[in-house]
Amino acid sequence: MGFLSPLALFGLFAAAIPPLLHLLARKLPPVVPFxxxxxxxxxxxxxxxxxxxRNLLLLFxxxxxxxxxxxxxxxxxxxxxxxxxxxxxxxxxxxxxxxxSGAVVDGRRxxxxxxxxxxxxxxxxxxxxxxxxxxxxxxxxxxSLQEARAVVDTLSPWxxxxxxxxxxxVVAQSMAGDPLPGHEVVVLSDxxxxxxxxxxxxxxxxxxxxxxxxxxxxxxxxxxxxxxxRVEPHVWSPSGEVIASLGGSESRPAAVRLSVGxxxxxxxxxxxxxQVILSGSTNQSxxxxxxxxxxxxxxxxxxxxxxxxxxxxPAAAAVGPGAGAFVAEAVSVLQQSGRARIGDDVxxxxxxxxxxxxxxxxxxxxxxxxxxxxxSARGVRWQFxxxxxxxxxxxxxxxxxxxxxxxxxxxxxxxxxxxxxxGGEPWLVRxxxxxxxxxxxxxxxxxxxxxxxxxxxxxxxxxRVAGTPAWIVTAFPGEVVEVPAQAQALLGPDGPVPIPGNxxxxxxxxxGVYFLQGAGADTIGAVEVNxxxxxxxxxxxxxxxxxxxxxxxxxxxSAQGLDRELFSGARRADLTGGLLLLAVALALGEFGLSSxxxxxxxx
Length: 603
What we know:
Layout: E1 2-3, H1 17-24, H2 41-73, E2 76-79, E3 85-86, E4 90-95, E5 104-105, E6 108-109, H3 110-124, E7 130-134, E8 140-143, H4 145-153, H5 164-175, E9 184-188, E10 211-215, E11 224-232, E12 235-236, E13 239-248, E14 254-260, E15 263-270, E16 275-281, E17 286-294, E18 304-311, E19 316-319, H6 325-336, E20 341-342, E21 346-349, E22 356-359, H7 368-378, E23 383-396, E24 405-413, E25 417-422, E26 425-431, E27 434-437, H8 454-466, E28 471-475, E29 480-482, E30 489-492, E31 495-498, E32 504-506, E33 512-517, E34 523-529, H9 543-550, E35 554-557, H10 559-565, E36 571-574, H11 576-602
Parallel strand pairs: 4-7, 4-9, 9-10, 10-35, 12-18, 19-20, 19-21, 21-22, 22-27, 28-34
Antiparallel strand pairs: 1-2, 2-36, 3-36, 5-6, 7-8, 11-13, 13-16, 14-15, 14-17, 17-18, 23-24, 23-25, 25-26, 26-27, 29-32, 30-31, 30-33, 33-34
Helix pairs in contact: 1-2, 2-11, 3-4, 6-8
């Protein structure tokens, strides 16, 4: 219970007026010492009791009438399970305009239904309510009702993914300090099962005290999309392949195309869960953008994926003394398959050569000092150190060599670009035109030479590390990713963006290929920004999974149920009208009772 005009309650002091008048008007019947009236005493006692009862009832009615009129003037409001108004409340609205909201159901986008529900929530909110808005980027925004309406009216599906569990937790924490009663979080989403994460469940998902109202969306159609696409080999010369993985739940096959510019260079057919190989060639050179696309379906946002393709002749490779038999055999395979030319642009050896040298530790330990002196004379800041043994896995930007097992290595001392690490220490490094590998390519040093990744690893060193760089980094919109150490800027929509010293950069929000620039503004790689493949899976989470995952006071409601429960924690009714009707009834009752008494006395 509360009052909109509490100062009017001082009028309750007026309720003391009827009792005071009643006390002042009291008169004792006169004592008449006349024996002849004694026979009337019994009749007088009966009449006196009736008169007292009527007067007490009139006193009660008049006092209650004043109290009711004063309360009506104070405009009382009370929480009730019905009524259209409510006390000021804090409400957060999560509008999931992620990529999957662009799916079309019965000729209408899911996002259109989400926006309709959001408008209804804002229409129910009052100017005294505090509103938070969360979109697909997961950022809570404290916003006015007018601004919130303007935002949702212009929304479109964004090429990103929203984690509902994280969004509920973050926005509930943001509004936890607000003193207004009735904290509510309204979730408007297509409720993809992949967006309802169980990583944060139960009461840990959000602070206590916030009600979570989840709108139950219409069922979604079956869908297919492109989950991934990668270029093989990394540098085309001038032909190559793009391997596309299809996802979703649609089993019917669809046409898949690879386009460069306005021209399709490869076609194939595939269904969900298929890997499709698109072989093509182009007469262009340098960096080009390829587009892998499907026939459009009910969700068109996941039917396209972009790839960066580097087109250049393969580098020429040679094997020098001390590189080892495994290296010599693998380079020969690359030359015969056209992945490397015969020449000495790149030399594999345990001695420095002219041009680019991929340098392994010398087979003769006595030669380590001489090799280190030669490195210093050439200005290379790296040197070979002592041998250490153990068992580690390779990590870093080492291409197919990642996760290979290393048993023996020489510690690398110095400064420069670190491309791969073992046990947290440098294993593959570069300074200028010299690339140092801490292990020899032999079985007692590493398992890499006897693995299927060895030939692709040498291809990686020839054509991506030692030759013209062709670094490819994949990212989702807005994701923070690590780029190669050689990259100095990312060529974004508005021009080059410098890359911080930690080598991490936020991917642009729009799908596309964004090129990495090195020294002299040379293009050394690209960042491919595409949708998260989890957006392709439109299967919805059951209501019990939503409740169990979000935890606590969570309700999954239809549109009618959402309208009924919205602001129920702060819903109120104005009791003024009812009190005025009661006052009229009391006044009529008092008038009738007093009139009847007057007629009886006159008779």
